[in-house]
Amino acid sequence: MSQLDSTDMAILGYLQENGKRSYSEVARHLECSEGTIRARINKMLNAGVFEFIIHTNPNKVGLEVQAIIGFSTRLGAQEEIARCLQKHPEVRFVGAFSGKHDLIIQAYFKSNEDLVNFVNKELAKIDGILNADVNVELKQYKDSFSYIRTEE
What is the total count of domains within the chain? Predict the structure, then answer.
């Protein structure tokens, strides 16, 4: 898919507001045919422009502790460390960054004790981690996966 036009962006914005909307509802809102909406959504899905996911509230499923952990890594070890971190089910996000930390992860835990065990037992097993800067979320003000601005 080469480029998204204004209709594609409008579809994304409308679905972003409520991903459960039907093709016919989106079509009515955008004043085009249901077939057009269906074709464009399928084309964008196939191109990997977006995906339908369930965004779970971690607190509602027993994950009370969110941690953002920044790592300093030994030179040449970043890729292997990232692969190791990806394997842990607690880890939701792994990214390489410039700046103070070579890698940053976001991870969720049932308790502070589980976080401590993860740091002291699991992370300690990974060769090449020089430092782990553990930050625990105290209060959340925004959690969004919305990137498309919708027109008011």
Answer: 2
